[in-house]
Amino acid sequence: MAKKIIRVAGVAIIDQKENKVLAGKRNADRLVGGMWEFPGGKIEKGETPQEAAKRELEEEFHDEVKIGPQLGKTVSYEYDFGIVELTVFFAKLLTHNFDLIAHSKVEWLSADQVANLKWVPADAPLVKELAKTSFKDINF
Ligand SMILES: Nc1nc2c([nH]c(=O)n2[C@H]2C[C@H](O)[C@@H](COP(=O)(O)OP(=O)(O)OP(=O)(O)O)O2)c(=O)[nH]1
């Protein structure tokens, strides 16, 4: 049987003053738990990827974000449970609650630190792209 397609939207939250990006460590009991990811989740019916990303941030951190340009291209990655199609946007925080609901911790990283973490496998090409990005130069 063909594997199901799972459409996912995530955010690379950046702090343009500090030139840093936020990574979230998935709670250990979730699929691909314990690895680092772009906060976000599955796109629901009728939602744009941007709307999904905003909604997930409200659910996962109780925070509002402003969505900016896309990071790299949408990546497609085959897991045993399905094929994840992941679209990630740069985003800025409008609030700073950071209630940890789906994550055990978050970390702010400079571009040269992003490759040091163990990211969810699908994220590899996006992490590579991030490592080359000057976050200060992203336009919202
Ligand atoms: N959020 C997020 N998910 C990712 C990334 N990379 C990656 O392969 N995934 C996968 C893991 C999951 O199989 C899927 C996202 O599902 P999720 O479990 O985060 O989504 P959700 O919040 O809608 O979950 P749920 O209510 O169904 O538990 O995409 C990433 O960087 N961020």
From TrEMBL:
Segments forming domain Nudix hydrolase: 4-140
Reaction(s) catalysed (UniProt annotation): 8-oxo-dGTP + H2O = 8-oxo-dGMP + diphosphate + H(+)
Family: Belongs to the Nudix hydrolase family.
Protein keywords: DNA damage, DNA repair, DNA replication, Hydrolase, Magnesium, Metal-binding, Mutator protein
PROSITE patterns the record matches: NUDIX
The protein's Enzyme Commission number: 3.6.1.55
Species this chain originates from: Lactobacillus kitasatonis
Annotated Pfam families: NUDIX
Designated name of the protein: 8-oxo-dGTP diphosphatase
Enzymatic class: hydrolase
Cofactor names: Mg(2+)
Domain of life: Bacteria
Coiled-coil region list: none
